[in-house]
Amino acid sequence: MEVCFFCFSFSVSAMQMQEWLRSLRPSGDGVGKSEVLDIRSLLPSLPSSFSFSSLSLSSPSLIGLGAVASLTVYWLVTRPRPIRPPCDLQAQSVPVQGDSCCRRSALLKDDNLLDFYHEDTKTVYDVFQRGLRIAGEGPCLGFRKPGEPYQWISYKEVAERAQVLGSGLLAKRCLIQPNSNQFVGIFAQNRAEWTIAELACYTFSMAVVPLYDTLGLEAIVHILKLAEISLVICDQEEKAACLMGNKEKGLTPALSCLVLFNPVSTALVERGKNCGVEVLHLSQIMPPQPQDLAVVCFTSGTTGTIHFIFQNILNLQMEFMSEHVTMFCHGARVGFYQGDISLLMDDIKTLKPTFFPVVPRIINRIYDKILGSVTSPLRRAILHYAVRRKQAELSSGIVRNNSVWDRLVFNKIQASLGGNVRFILTASAPISPTVLSFLRAALGCLIFEGYGQTECTAGCTFSMPGDWSAGHVGAPLPCARVKLTDIPDMNYYAKNGKGEICVQGPSVFQGYLHDQERTAEALDSEGWLHTGDVGQWLPNGTLQIIDRKKHIFKLSQGEYIAPEKIENVYMRCVPVLQVFVHGEHLQSYLIGIVVPDPEVFVGWVKGKGIVGSYEELCQNPDVKKAVLEDMTAVGKEAGLKSFEQVKHAQC
């Protein structure tokens, strides 16, 4: 930015000087009253009878005084300003009806929770329609091919495609009738067509059931049978063929129609005819109510069994983790990656996002990559000094990416995410306070952390703007009440500010499909959702997660781990007598402590060409590797997912 200096004629009275200062006050943004007072504070106290005209100043003095005044005004206009928090950061939540164990957001005027952000958006259908009114022909969904820029579909075109797809499904008689009890499966990677199919269901009051590869074949069959799904929309022919194979085996009798995003082969169409499944390509293909079913999600419980969660459209309106729904509400554009995780960083650089929702695992990778790239002691010292200087600004509420440290140290880091990121949201698993504080400084953008579960439509607490401290998950959202209840067995008592986290409000789910027993376990008679997590209230009204009520934990990527189930699998290994599986929420993998079976261990190892005593073999790296490989093979055979497999084992 170029700075121009002007010479002022200072043969003006003190009153004229005040008028000049007053003229700096803008009608909108810019220098306000406080800034004008700052300028006045820089001037010496002058007698009321004093006049600048009484001074006899040389031309260089006048020029210098004018330059100083201009610099002062420029600094006040351009200096970084702290973000003003929306409430007192020392009291981010308040007790409900005087009960300190139960708290709600300080952003609310009273104990009545927030049902809708906007009165004209009470359903997910309404959310997109609002975005359509705002953006119209503006870009909505973006996609790209390798080496090419992003291509965009407008809001108007997305709405038209959703309407055509929904009506086409009905015209093809793929669905019995449009209602919220009609479940539509979507078995595909995140892409523009996924969102269009989702909106098509909402447009005709049908419920979406997302299906993912990570669920595993057994879980997908269970879902299709339990929900009696007749229609599944797929991206690839391989997935459609897999689903058709289940139909041929009689495992999913209700399945009758498959719709594909990608081209369909004649062989697959003929195969479908032989087993009663109509196969269509996407090209061949009544606003809902707030209480209607919108989406059906599956979550793993404490035993590893898949549970069927159903939530109404009002729930989804409250779900802050439904990023694309939130973005649509404001007419924003949403870009999708190419489908290849190895090309993700290239997609990010090309898209140049301003809002970036991300799981802690990705944040940890960015952190590790930054530190790993700094090898020399001098560069490492400069990096940590720059971080401390930026963190000092953060403690004052200033968040920016244009400081001298950003230009000298952090510009490449910020450019790796496109250079335009202003807002990062992380959730699904805890994140290390060290990593969070470091990246807030290095990336120079707002980074918020949230907490919740699928059963409370993802979010129930959220860190407050202006509060850049770490080690907590924020205060309750305006749509939720959060309370702590006693856990005597673990010596946690609500009167001490510790206990099981319970959530109540319009964002809480309706229950598990066809499973009243588990619904009763999760929801009590007053509608409180018992999360199974243990938390404590901090003095400023924020919530800190400190434990887990049941023997289950999350890894950094947000996946629940039931260690007892994994241990039972690994004990099937020949050389293993006992095994202990351990993981932490700040790590992305599991470790195991193995007790080899003395009766068979030595002989088993000898069969692999390694000899020695029991104690010697337990310390042998090659033996440890062999034991781990055997455990991995048995785990794979038993159907353990990759994140459930132990990555390091100690005998």
UniProtKB/TrEMBL annotation:
InterPro entries, alphabetized: AMP-dep_synth/lig_dom, ANL_N_sf, LC-FACS_euk
Keyword match Lipid metabolism: yes
Enzyme Commission code: 6.2.1.15, 6.2.1.3
Catalytic activity: a long-chain fatty acid + ATP + CoA = a long-chain fatty acyl-CoA + AMP + diphosphate; (5Z,8Z,11Z,14Z)-eicosatetraenoate + ATP + CoA = (5Z,8Z,11Z,14Z)-eicosatetraenoyl-CoA + AMP + diphosphate; 5-hydroxy-(6E,8Z,11Z,14Z)-eicosatetraenoate + ATP + CoA = 5-hydroxy-(6E,8Z,11Z,14Z)-eicosatetraenoyl-CoA + AMP + diphosphate; (E)-hexadec-2-enoate + ATP + CoA = (2E)-hexadecenoyl-CoA + AMP + diphosphate
AMP-dependent synthetase/ligase domain mapped to chain residues: 149-305, 318-513
GO cellular component: endoplasmic reticulum; membrane
Gene Ontology molecular functions: arachidonate-CoA ligase activity; ATP binding
Keywords associated with the record: ATP-binding, Fatty acid metabolism, Ligase, Lipid metabolism, Nucleotide-binding
Enzyme class: ligase
Cited Pfam families: AMP-binding
SUPFAM superfamilies associated with the record: Acetyl-CoA synthetase-like
Tagged with keyword Ligase: yes
Membrane-spanning residues: none
PANTHER family: LONG-CHAIN-FATTY-ACID--COA LIGASE
Family: Belongs to the ATP-dependent AMP-binding enzyme family.
Protein name listed in UniProt: Arachidonate--CoA ligase
